[in-house]
Design a protein that fits this description.
The protein is of the alpha/beta class and about 425 residues long. The chain is built from 13 helices and 13 strands.
């Protein structure tokens, strides 16, 4: 009976444990979590979501405070088009976060940064370019492009000295998306170094509509692997979404996947950035406590716990402090919904916005509890304490359980 450890992910002449820990923001996939994955020979992700705020928390900078002070005059203005990010500050925040992580890296694994294209930041092209280039400047091993079709992303850093050195990959949810990317980027003569195929059981934003249950990761990834083979492309294909045990992972590795990306079980790791009380909410969740809804302003459905405090909240848009989802014209779907409710409640009291949420503020405050489909199984991976809480686990324990377990067994903590 095979284990994940019987396989290896190959990048050129180097081999890695074929386990990739997904990039969860905002700072949920912490540097500490990514460093453990790399130390153990796999691949870890940090996220650059709201990197200015992450820098403030980690390095005592004042980027968010300074931005708030600069645009304080605009807080009650419905027009947010003038709220811009300082690109030099954005670059510095990215270099701080990435650089400190890379300096602490040990072991033979890799650390990538997860870069969400839907963080448009009232300057989609300029801000994305700065985030990617600054991560490369700071020595990141690779960049995973997520939350988008990535059609122009590689071109933004084509002139960077590390463009052909760092590992660059994309997340897709269909063979068509991969075909479109390759067609649009053919002129660069630069294939992605890896392709992550994310299925409908993943956490957070999904590459599917509300009909997600009609799709199946095994079917989609088989189509992608066959396409890569038919086109004679040397691109490792990585399976993601709903891979809960080492045996789940082995089934994809035996079917041709080069590695697996996992995240749900690491949300409750000691090294994960979620607050301790929120981790307990994840442990307590039952299957009917999890839903896929459309409250994200990005336009993508999201999987989350129904008890997330962000659902139905009517918080004032925090664009002057954050503003990561402002499009190129300063618009955000949450602002539209909030202003509609404000018109109905001019005193600003008792506002509840059910159809959208202020993703920036809620994620920053850990009030939006995104999760994978199998979150309700987390309670079966640990032991319950005498006080009714659940024992959290080390990232090493979870990683090695994936790496060495067989027969769908899950190693409980001592």
């Amino acid at each position: 009976m095979k284990r994940v450890d019987d396989f290896r992910l190959k990048f050129g002449q180097k081999e890695y444990v074929p386990i990739m820990v997904g990039g969860m923001g905002v700072d949920i996939s912490t540097a500490e979590l990514a460093l453990e994955a790399a130390r153990l020979g796999g691949i870890g992700h940090i996220s650059d979501a709201m990197v200015n705020d992450v820098s403030d928390r980690r390095f005592d900078t004042s980027f968010v405070k300074d931005k708030t002070k600069l645009y304080k005059y605009n807080i009650n203005n419905l027009d947010k088009s003038g709220v811009k990010f300082d690109l030099d500050v954005l670059a510095e925040a990215t270099r701080r976060h990435v650089g400190a992580t890379m300096e602490a890296k040990k072991g033979d694994g890799l650390i990538f940064v997860n870069c969400m294209e839907k963080l448009t930041m009232n300057g989609p092209r300029e801000t994305l370019q700065v985030r990617m280039a600054s991560a490369l400047d700071a020595g990141i091993d690779g960049i995973t492009m997520s939350a988008g079709l990535h059609l122009g992303s590689f071109g933004l850093i084509a002139d960077h000295p590390r463009f052909r050195d760092a590992k660059l990959g994309i997340i897709v949810s269909s063979v068509r998306a991969l075909q479109l990317f390759l067609r649009k980027n053919a002129r660069l003569n630069r294939l992605p170094d890896f392709v992550i195929v994310e299925g409908p059981l993943a956490g957070g934003h999904l590459g599917f509509g509300l009909d997600w249950a009609q799709y199946d990761l095994a079917t989609i990834i088989a189509e992608v692997i066959q396409y890569v083979k038919d086109e004679q492309l040397n691109i490792p294909v990585i399976a993601a979404g709903g891979i809960f045990t080492g045996s789940d992972a082995v089934s994809f590795l035996e079917s041709g996947s080069a590695a697996v990306q996992v995240a749900t079980r690491f949300t409750v790791a000691n090294e994960c950035g979620l607050p301790a009380d929120v981790k307990q909410d994840y442990y307590r969740a039952n299957e009917d406590d999890i839903e896929v809804n459309t409250i994200s302003p990005t336009g993508y459905p999201m999987r989350m716990l129904k008890s997330s405090p962000a659902i139905g909240d009517g918080i004032r848009p925090g664009c002057e402090s954050y503003g990561y989802l402002l499009d190129a014209n300063g618009n955000c779907a949450y602002i539209t919904s909030y202003n509609r409710e404000l018109a109905l409640h001019p005193d600003g009291k008792n506002i509840s916005v059910m159809d959208k949420t202020c993703l920036c503020t809620q994620m920053r405050n850990f009030k939006l509890w995104t999760c994978g489909h199998y979150t309700y199984r987390l309670k079966d991976t640990t032991r319950r304490n005498a006080d009714g809480t659940y024992q959290t686990l080390s990232a090493e324990h979870i990683f090695k359980d994936y790496q060495f377990s067989v027969d769908h067994q899950i190693a409980l903590p001592v």
